[in-house]
Amino acid sequence: MMFRKLAVAALTAMAMPFAALAQEDDGGIGTTIGIDLGTTYSCVGVFKNGRVEIIANDQGNRITPSYVAFMENGDRLVGDAAKNQATINPENTVFDVKRLIGRNYSDKSVQADKKLVPYKIVSDQNKPMVEVSQGGKDLKFAPEEVSAMILGKMKLTAETFLGDEVKHAVVTVPAYFNDAQRQATKD
C-alpha cells in the first residue's frame, strides 16, 4: 500500500516539471494526475499546493478496487460498487484483468489465471478476451478495454475532486511488464 502511494507521488512529481514547461509554452495544459493502475486496487493522486495528495473516491477510500461489473439491467459498475456485488454476479464481475494485458491466450499464465476466475476468458486470434453477459447479450472485451474502464473511473474521481477536467495523466506499470504489456497499457 505504501509502495502505491510512493509510486503515484513519484510519478506525479516527475510530471510536474513537464507540466510547468508546457504551461509556459501553450498557456496551460491543466492539471496532470498520477494513476497507479493496480491488479487488485488502483489509486489516483494530484500534485497540489506543493505536495502530492492521494484522492479519495466516492466511497471515501483512497484506493479503489480494480473491478468492473456488467449488470443484467445494462449498467456497468466500476470500483467499490462492482466489488460489493461480486458474490451475487461472479461470472460478470471482472477483476485481476491486468494480468492478461499484452499476453497471448496460449500463455501458461493466462491458462492458469483462467482456472482461478469465475468469469470467462476466451481466445480471439490468440488474444485473451473477457466474455460477460450484459442486458441479455454476450459481450467480449479486451483486457485493455476493461483497464480503460478502471482508468476512466480514476479520472472521474480526480475530476470530481478538482472540479475541473483532467486531460493529462501519468500511469504506473509494474517493473516486470514487458514491452508488449507497456504498449498495451498505453493503447
UniProtKB/TrEMBL annotation:
Entry keywords, A to Z: ATP-binding, Nucleotide-binding, Signal
Native source species:
Asterionellopsis glacialis
Where is the secretion signal located?
Answer: 1-22
GO molecular function terms noted in the UniProt entry: ATP binding; ATP-dependent protein folding chaperone
Q: Which residues form a coiled coil?
A: none
Q: Which SUPFAM superfamilies match?
A: Actin-like ATPase domain (SSF53067)
Matching entries from PROSITE patterns are given as: HSP70_1 (PS00297)
Q: Which InterPro entries match?
A: ATPase_NBD, Heat_shock_70_CS, Hsp_70_fam
Q: What is this protein called?
A: Uncharacterized protein
In terms of PANTHER family, this protein maps to: HEAT SHOCK PROTEIN 70KDA
